[in-house]
Amino acid sequence: MSTLRIVSFTVVIFVFASATMAQAPAKGKKFQYHYENIAIPRASADEPIRKEFSLGLADRYLEQGALAWTKQRKCVSCHTNGLYLFSRPELTKELGPPSIESRNFFISELRKMKTMDREKLLDGIRPTQVAYLAAGLAEWDRHVSKKLSPETDEALRLMLSLQSKDGSWGNADCWPPFESSNFQGATVAARALSSAPGWLDGLKDETLQAGVERLKTYLKKTEPAHDYGRLILLWTAARYPDLISAEKKQALIEMVMQHQLPDGGWSIRTFAAPEAWGRGNRAEKLREEPEFDKTAKAWKNLASDGHQTGLAIIVLRESGVPADDPRIQKGIQWLLTHQRESGRWWTRSLNTDRWHFITYSGTFYPLQALKKCNVLPALKQTTAR
Question: Measuring CA to CA, which residue among 189, 180, 183, 70 is closest to residue 130?
């Protein structure tokens, strides 16, 4: 680890901008994110691994990806700009405040959604979109302004008004992992509620209180469809300790540890059978991947990915596993030695082999994991040497 250092942020910006402009925007060229002068190529397993860890390149990728998505798509997506405000505020100390433009966009979306017909708001993925919107604003309040804002209060109230009768939040069932289950939506809503400074403690409205209790009951009683669902249940229980017993918590921690691969990281593919994601519509695609043994109905010779390695370490740390645990240290070493030239970590999509948007969370989660193991600040300090 001592041989790794962070490149100067100023130099990083120049290098990334030069590389971006050199590729933008050739006619017919396909990009993961593209808007005006932002032209981020599609992610690929063939992208070279960096010789030096770069915080600046990772940050640049995340900032530009969220901005390009917002400007081009003009919607809150779970996998990109929704995840940006969900995750970026926590890295304020290391990277500076998140984009105020992103927060302003969330507020404009909140205003728009509050005027929508209720049936339209309850349709499809919109309840989970609202949960991401509320969670992003709440995370901003928690880590940036350090106080509850009126906009976050509005968003949480709107979010609870869209709760399903069973306590969950409506979601899609076809784009795993973020847009494939109501259980996922419920964990995002739980995060939103727990992140908003003082909101739960000051809640007096009995209808809203009942919604919060209905959410907790849903998470306590619902058996997740796969180990990925169990992982995010464990993550949620770090904020709501009464969701699971001490025995179940330890069993879930051991489950996560058992998924660790020989290379030191984790792969999202081992956390669910192909047909268990969403309504099973990605099963055929996943079974055709070369690492899936159709005879044994199991994955073999998988390499780790950024999304799952980062997420596993985040959840284990928030669940009380010490940073110096040898298994976590193996995962940290994998992260520090597998960043790609663009600043991303490679994660192959579960859905299609075109855009691989999961490399976005596959870059946020590693940075958060490094922070939670007290590695990111130490590495950043080397820029002054």
Answer: 189
Q: How far apart are CA 273 and CA 287, in angstroms?
A: 9
Taking the complete model, does pTM exceed 0.90, yes or no? yes
The residues, any chain, with a CB within 8 Å of residue 221's CB and separated by 6 or more, are: none
What is the residue extent of each domain of the chain? 75-226
42 CB neighbour count, 10 Å cutoff: 16
- 301: which 2 tokens? 């010779």
Burial degree of 355 (CB within 10 A; 0-12, 13-18, 19+): middle
Q: Could you give the CA distance from residue 163 to residue 236 in angstroms, rounded to a whole number?
A: 17
Please write the tens of the pLDDT for every residue from 259-307. 999 999 999 999 999 999 999 999 999 999 999 999 999 999 999 999 9
Closest C-alpha to 128, from 88, 177, 69:
177
Q: What element of type H or E holds 358? A: helix 358-372
- Measure the CA–CA gap between 1 and 81, rounded to whole angstroms: 31
The tokens 């796969």 sit on which residue? 226
Judged by DSSP in three states, 255 sits in: helix
* DSSP secondary structure code for residue 7 in this structure: P
